């Protein structure tokens, strides 16, 4: 199984991408990687997602994964398309058990202490804290990390370039996720590259 820690350590920020038009995939991926963000999460929220993953894998240095994966079928489709990691917004027992021997790692979403306990039961210690801001923000994460010592998080949901440093300063935070680098609408590679550069310059605490 590929090492989820290696992926979470590859950049301080994982751009969360909603790709509507497959022809946007390459210019978006190139701009993000050139800007210093190699880890790309393509959400399975659009019909273009799987083709976007295939296209983005052509970009040298890109580590392409799938997000918003809800069940084992979508997990398999995303792996088949070449995803190197998978992210889910929450964790069901069905998904957690189905991926135990999968060739790529799952970063499951959690929002409560009970979610984290279920994730630990299923063997997951690297978790997406989602939706981070509306689930209690930094005070909630501090509470979780006091209790669940070995767990590291990728908080996502409502995080911005301005607030990311506060999250990244926490020891339990490996990196953060966010959509701010690639806003919806027409693709502007220069603007994406510039936002990626600023995000890539942020540093996690350890
Ligand atoms: C996700 O799927 O992780 C979120 O949609 C990203 O959250 P954000 O848009 O608030 O950054």
From TrEMBL:
GO MF, any single term: lyase activity
Pathway assigned in UniProt: Carbohydrate acid metabolism
A Pfam family reported for this protein in Swiss-Prot or TrEMBL: Aldolase
Keyword Flavoprotein recorded: no
InterPro entries the record matches: Aldlse_KDPG_KHG, Aldolase_TIM, KDPG/KHG_AS_2
Superkingdom: Bacteria
SUPFAM superfamilies: Aldolase
Keywords noted in UniProt: Carbohydrate metabolism, Lyase
PANTHER family listed in its UniProt record: 2-DEHYDRO-3-DEOXY-6-PHOSPHOGALACTONATE ALDOLASE-RELATED (PTHR30246:SF1), 2-KETO-3-DEOXY-6-PHOSPHOGLUCONATE ALDOLASE (PTHR30246)
Record note on quaternary structure: Homotrimer.
Family per record: Belongs to the KHG/KDPG aldolase family.
Entry protein name: 2-dehydro-3-deoxyphosphogluconate aldolase
Biological source species: Allosphingosinicella deserti
Lineage of source species: Bacteria, Pseudomonadati, Pseudomonadota, Alphaproteobacteria, Sphingomonadales
């Amino acid at each position: 199984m590929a090492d989820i820690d290696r992926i979470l350590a590859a950049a301080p920020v994982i751009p969360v991408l909603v790709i509507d038009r497959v022809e946007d995939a390459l210019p978006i991926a190139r701009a993000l990687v050139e800007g210093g963000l190699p880890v790309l999460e393509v959400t399975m929220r659009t019909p273009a997602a799987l083709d976007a993953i295939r296209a983005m894998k052509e970009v040298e240095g890109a580590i392409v994964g799938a997000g918003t994966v809800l069940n084992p079928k979508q997990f398999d489709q995303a792996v088949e398309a070449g995803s190197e990691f998978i992210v889910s917004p929450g964790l069901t027992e069905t998904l957690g058990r189905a991926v135990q021997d999968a060739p790529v790692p799952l970063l499951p979403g959690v929002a409560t202490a009970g979610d984290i306990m279920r994730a630990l039961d299923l063997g997951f210690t690297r978790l997406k804290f989602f939706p981070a801001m509306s689930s209690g923000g930094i005070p909630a994460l501090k509470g979780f990390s006091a209790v669940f010592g070995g767990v590291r998080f990728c908080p996502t949901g409502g995080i911005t370039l301005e607030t990311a440093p506060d999250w990244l300063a926490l020891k339990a935070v490996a990196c953060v996720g966010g959509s701010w680098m690639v806003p919806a609408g027409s693709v502007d590679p220069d603007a994406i590259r510039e936002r990626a550069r600023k995000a890539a310059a942020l540093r996690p605490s350890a």
